[in-house]
User: Fold Penicillin acylase family protein from Negadavirga shengliensis.
Amino acid sequence: MKRLLIILLTLMLLTAVAYTWLVYRYKPVYSGEILVKNLENSAEVFFDDFGIPHIYAESAEDAYLTLGYVHAQDRLFQMDLLRRVGSGRLAEILGEDLLETDRLFRTLGIGRHADWSTRTLQEDGSSEWKSAAEAYLNGVNHFIEEGKLPPEYTLLGINPEPFTINDMHNIVGYMAFTFAMGLKTDPLVTKIQRELGPDYAKHLSIHTLPEHHVVPNHHPERDKNSRIIGKTLSERLEGLPVALLQGSNGWVIGPEKTASGSVLFCNDTHIGFSQPSVWYEAHLEYPGYSYYGYHLGGFPFGLVGHSRDHSIGLTMFENDDHDFYEERRNPENPQSTLYGNGSLPIIVHVDTIQVKNSDPDIWATEVSAHGPLINKVVPEINEITHLPVASWWVYLQEPTRALEALWKLNHSGNIHDAEEAVRLIHAPGLNIMYGDKTGNIAWWAAAKLPIRPEGVHSKMFIDGSNPANEPIGWIPFEENPMSINPPSGFIASANNQPDTLPNGIFYPGYYYPGERYRRIAKAIQSGTGWDAEKIKALQLETINDQLPENAQILLGCIDKGAHPDFQPILDALTNWTGSHAIGETAPTLYYKWLYHTLHGMMADELGEEWFQKYLNTFLYIRSTHSLLRAASSPWWNNIHTETKENRDDIVKRSLETALQELTDQWGKDSRQWQWGKATYLEHPHALGAKKPLDKIFNVKAGPVPANEESINKLSFLINKEGRYAVKAGPALRNILDFAHVENAEGILPTGQSGNLFSPFYRDQAKHYTQGRYRPQLMNKAAIERSTERVLRFVKK
Assistant:
């Protein structure tokens, strides 16, 4: 017994020693002194109780150098992955499993576009924003050279390369790709139209339906230089009672509707969950500049954030900026495509993809006049057409100016500066939300919108041999969707369709139907006196009032009393308000029943693989209501049976299947089928795909009120299994009242740091799932009082 005790004590001591060594080896440094050779003057970083760096410097270059260092200290591995995915270099560090992903991105040409953007930037000469970006890179690279690299590099047996401007452009390219929905949607639409015909297609919401909700435009008056003509500060103050931001939600409430008499700004960007989460918060102060921003890994300027005078936020515009052209090879010269009465050459790019622990992969990409041919990397295209298909993408049509645009948005002094910055964004399509201290509120759709010829269906494959199918120009920026100081007193965007443009165009896209927008707009229109606490309740709402209408359609197809053993949950569904609280039972039945209904409708025509693809597109969310109510739709008939099924047949059979599966899953008492049992949220780390590393790096958050298109969107994929992993949701929550800028609040899904040994790795996860917020400190005295973690950067 004594010997066993000694062995146990020895093991405990060795474990403690090993853990202490690991912490010393890998934990980020949050206090002390860092010597930096490229620094002009000393700078200080105060890390608050949640690890947010508050940077005080004497110049922009010193501030951004310091930001680069602390950003890399907390997020280097994430930054490394972001630059590698767009340029097709993941297999180089993660092995052969990522080779197909690399081939896809090499084919799309994001890396080639990044090279073009970098060359263009270098030709532009010096500028404030370029100097700041280069200073940020100096900070990142100083950490790589002298800081404590995170444990992922040890586990993978690699060392990070220095960061460059080109890496920033690759990161922007990847971000643009993640927002381009055409690659997932257009092949499916083309397949349905060609193989099933218009009777099937017309029951899908390929285009926005009249029942969907649009964002109103309010185009401002402009002077002869196209500048906004708006009220002055004094004119705005006269009528006020007091002195004077992936899917995503963003709304800005004007002074006349707020309790404080100042603009109230709210943003929550919907992005896929991961560990670390996508956004990195940082507060920068130097002479003439004060800004609290949310930064993308490897990017120096905030995409979301606020100064003491203005705020910016974003949602996805979801415009259609990705077309696919069917090309016809010239039979006399296969390295060219037929075009009108002649032909155009195909250019071949040959890449060498390095693969860890394997031979390099030599990959050739053919590029037609319309773009790269993608059949090899999107194999389902070959089920639709035998012709090569080219990807035409707005993002690739000109160099990105994202660095310049974001610098100018961060440093905007007024609404005119902000609009000039927005003009520089050509892709991806973004809804830029704006509010300021003087009472202005604004929304711009930031994108270059191609004008397509009449008759070109942008969601179907286009004949690339016909010159008449080419885009014929761009819509002028002044005619883009926008709303500047509208009479309603508020602006909201939830990835839904913008209203008709001044030129009469109802611009096509992959917009959501607008349930989130409807709830937001209805609430704000209902009254005044809005403040941060009221906004929190709205931002955290998990009600979708469209879904009970769908449920009533399903319930109307079954015989009342046909399932007496399950009357409690059928009653719950009958009386459902659309709430997704974890104690509800109605959602558990609704989504299971809906899945089997849609499967019974569509899987016979589409096949299992394409049906699953359908559930992954915007068509699923936008079309469900119209599909369920269309009793005469050909989708209801099973093409593999001799009898002709109708809606009631499919819905009744689907309910029986759903009830049996739920009984097998959760027991006979349907009152115990709580929604919280069926949902879960786990934030996956890149290395968590390999067991047992998931137990170490992933962050579990437990049951959450997962939902479909509620304001607090926590999205999942409906499935046969009836267990719903939440894949995406608000990657930040942000609330700011311009009457109390220093009292702004926000939250991240897991934590500020991506370093496993940091105390800020998962410290916000419980706050997030419980709907709590934390302060976004900007008052230096309060910051100094709240922390002893001070890291000083000193010139070497």
Notes: The mean pLDDT is 91.
